[in-house]
Structure formats: C-alpha cells, structure tokens
C-alpha cells in the first residue's frame, strides 16, 4: 500500500467525522427539511451542492458526519452515503453510464451487482464484459477506448475470497475504476491510494457491524462525488440518518472487531484445513490461498469471511447447517454473530449455472461470517456438526 500509515487508522477510526460540541456519541438529525431566512437563502441552497440545512434528500447532518468519517478513513476528498450497498452500486452505474456505454466487470462479483448488470443495464443498452479478476490484466485488456465508462471490481470477493491486484487496477487510465471493498472495510485496504476512482462499501456489513443498519457508501475525488451526488438526489436511494448514526457508531469499534474476527477466521480456516470432511478452504490469510502474497501486500486484516467446501454437496451442506447449535444460518457478514450460508442457494441463487460453473460456486461451498464469540466455542460447534452430518 503506497501510504501504509496503518497504525494511525485504528486511532483515526475513533476520531473521524466528529463534532464534539454535540457530545461524544453521534447525534441523530431526523429533520427532513430546515427553515430558511427567506427567498434569497432558499435560492442559494437550491444551487448548492451536497450541503446540509435545506432538504434531507440533498444532505443531512448525521449522514454527512458518516460520509466525512468514511472520506477520512479512505483518504479521499469526499464520500456519499446511500440507503444500501445496492443503492450505491446502482446509483454509480446510472450516474456515469448511458445507453451504448460499456462496462468491464469481474465475473464473480456479488450476485446483486451481477443481477443489476445483467438486468437493468442490459435493458438500458449498457453492455457488460466479464473478466476473471484474479488476473487483473484482463480488466485493462477488455477496455474499449472511448466506449468503456466503468471498470468494476470486488476484492476480496463474496463468497470466493478472490483478490484483485489494486496496483494493476488503479493503473487503468480512461474509464472510471470502482472497487467494492465491502469485505475489507476501510481499515484493511484503501483502493484510492492505488489510483482507483471510487471505493464502494455495503456499510450494512462490517462498517455498521451490528446487523442493525442497511447502508451503502462511496468515496472518491470531490468533483466526481459531486457529479454522482447530482444524479443521486434524483435516484433517491438516500441514506437514512438513523442508519448513518449506526454506521458512525460502528466505525468507532471497527478496528478492534476486525482484528478479533480476522484472528478467529484465520484460526478456524487453518483448523478446517485439517478436517477430513472438508475438501477445500478459502481465506486470504491462508498460505495455501493462491493470492496470499497479494493479500499480505494490500490488506492489513484478512477479514471476517471465509468459505469452505465439504464432501458431497447440497444435501450434506443442509445437514451440516442443521447440526450447528451456535452458528446461525443467515445471509450477511461483519456483525457480532457468527453466521453460515450456502451461497449457491441463498445470496447467489440468482447467478446463472454457467457463471456458477465458471466461478466455482458449487453446491458444496459454505460461507462462514465470523463474529465475536470465543473462537474455541465456534470450533467446538463446527467440530460436532462436521462429525454428525
Ligand atoms: C460484496 C457486496 N457488495 C454489495 C452488497 C450489497 O449491499 P446491501 O445489501 O447493503 O445492498 C453486498 C451484500 O451482501 C455484498 O456482499
């Protein structure tokens, strides 16, 4: 990472996006509108960009405190929050792309992202070319000069834990580059440091971190974020102040949560490798991960998510999930509770068979979202379930 001032990120998370005059805790501004001093003031506000004091869809003080915190952590000039991660993705794409434009995207992006590319984008005549993000040169090779508006990557990927080389991606000139950095969070990697135009997060996950917010955010240069803001107020996927408050609260403890989750994920991934019913384990912190060296280079924490494959497919996966007592079946990650999901039939159910085959999204694949319980309790739960299914 070019500016590897990581020690400061943990401290920064405590201090970013603050206005201590309102107390230490984030304050909640629920107003949808603010009175002005008269016509001239209202006219000034109508021409202003992304400024509070007018109407909440344009800007809200709590949401803006969250945005400022993310911009400070990502070391970008600006940030913009949304009602969800998908709200962020769909707004960015529709703000920057028109009919006839072209996008280069990673084949194993989050299923919702793929569904947006394959559904609304296709319907609007925005063509998408898919590449294997593990070979980052494929992104550059697929760019059509003058036609490609966006290059979209996700690293690490959900649920495969594949990585994209941020140095390669950031060096692409011409189209805007976007990195979905949800699994890493701003405390593990900063794609903008490498030249990536827009960093995107589903803050529903580790950033908010308590399964009590649905929130998205992007970060980048001021001019670009302002351009996207101008479209976003029409698209209307505006972040709720309540969720932004929970996002801001989550940021304060993100470093310590991520450290604990990454330690447990590492221990569980290594232990799973030794289990006889387990046929494969994916976690960037494992030496056996094909991109482990890249993970060491560009990630500070390897994250809370790992995936593993068990012998004999969907039926066995279902039995294993049923046999777990502590680990709950649910489809998110980054929160306090450890969760398990069978990606092929849940989060990634909508992915077509051909893409599933190409990306290795098999019926034997299970995703573990490691929470904050004691690691030995989690291992005991998995051990009992692996023996009994
Ligand atoms: C990598 C990734 N990106 C984007 C999203 C979409 O985020 P949200 O559910 O907040 O819309 C998800 C959701 O799981 C995700 O895992």
In short:
The chain is α/β, with parallel strands linked by helices and 389 residues long.
Please name the defining characteristics of this protein:
single chain, about 400 residues, alpha/beta, Aspartate Aminotransferase, domain 2, Aspartate Aminotransferase, domain 1, 2 domains, 7-stranded mixed beta sheet, 5-stranded mixed beta sheet, 12 strands, about 40% helix, binds pyridoxal-5'-phosphate
Secondary-structure element series = HHHEHEHEHEHEEEHHEHEHEEHEH
Assembly level: single chain
Q: Please name the CATH architecture of the largest domain.
A: 3-Layer(aba) Sandwich
| End-to-end separation | 43 Å
Query: What is the percentage of strand-forming residues?
Result: 5-15%
Counting DSSP E segments of at least 2 residues, the number of strands comes to 12
Total domain count: 2
Give the strand line-up of the largest sheet.
Answer: 1-7-6-5-4-2-3
Rounded radius of gyration (Å): 21 Å
Q: Any idea of the CATH class of the largest domain?
A: Alpha Beta
Number of H/I helices: 13
| Spatial shape | globular
Percent helix among the residues? Answer: 25-40%
- List segments where confidence is low: pLDDT < 50 over at least 5 consecutive residues: none
Rounded mean pLDDT score:
95
Associated small molecules: pyridoxal-5'-phosphate
Looking at CATH, which topology of the largest domain would you report?
Aspartate Aminotransferase, domain 2
Main beta sheet strand tally, sense and closure: 7 strands, mixed
CATH superfamily of the largest domain: Type I PLP-dependent aspartate aminotransferase-like (Major domain)
Helix/strand/pairing category: alpha/beta
């Amino acid at each position: 990472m070019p500016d590897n001032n990581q020690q400061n990120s943990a401290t920064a998370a405590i201090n970013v996006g603050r206005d201590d005059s309102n107390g230490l805790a984030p304050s909640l501004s629920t107003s949808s509108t603010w009175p002005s001093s008269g016509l001239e003031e209202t006219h000034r506000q109508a021409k202003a960009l992304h400024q509070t004091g007018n109407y909440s869809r344009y800007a809200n003080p709590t949401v803006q405190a969250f945005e400022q915190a993310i911009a400070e952590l990502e070391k970008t000039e600006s940030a913009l929050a949304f009602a969800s991660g998908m709200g962020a993705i769909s707004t960015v794409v529709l703000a920057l792309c028109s009919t006839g434009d072209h996008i280069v995207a990673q084949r194993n992006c989050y299923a919702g992202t793929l569904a947006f590319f394959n559904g609304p984008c296709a319907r609007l005549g925005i063509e998408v070319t898919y590449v294997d993000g593990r070979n980052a040169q494929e992104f550059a090779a697929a760019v059509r000069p003058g036609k490609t508006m966006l290059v979209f990557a996700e690293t690490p990927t959900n649920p495969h834990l594949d990585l994209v080389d941020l140095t390669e991606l950031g060096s692409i000139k011409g189209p805007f580059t976007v990195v979905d950095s949800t699994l890493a969070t701003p405390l593990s990697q900063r794609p903008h440091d490498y030249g990536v135009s827009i960093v995107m997060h589903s803050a529903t996950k580790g950033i908010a971190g308590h399964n009590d917010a649905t929130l998205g955010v992007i970060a980048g240069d001021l001019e670009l974020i302002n351009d996207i803001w101008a479209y976003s107020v029409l698209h209307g996927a505006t972040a709720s102040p309540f969720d932004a408050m929970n996002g801001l609260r989550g940021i304060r403890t993100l470093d310590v949560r991520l450290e604990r989750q990454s330690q447990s994920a590492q221990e569980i991934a290594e232990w799973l490798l030794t289990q006889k019913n387990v046929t494969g384990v994916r976690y960037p912190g494992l030496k056996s991960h094909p991109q482990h060296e890249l993970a060491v280079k560009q990630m500070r924490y390897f994250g809370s998510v790992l995936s593993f494959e068990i012998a004999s497919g969907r039926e066995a996966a279902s039995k294993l999930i049923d046999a777990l007592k502590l680990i709950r079946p649910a489809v998110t990650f980054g929160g306090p509770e450890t969760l398990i999901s069978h990606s092929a039939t849940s989060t990634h159910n909508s992915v077509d068979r051909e893409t599933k085959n190409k990306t290795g999204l098999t019926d034997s694949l299970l995703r573990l979202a490691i929470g904050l319980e004691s690691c030995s309790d989690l291992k005991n739960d998995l051990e009992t379930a692996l023996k009994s299914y």
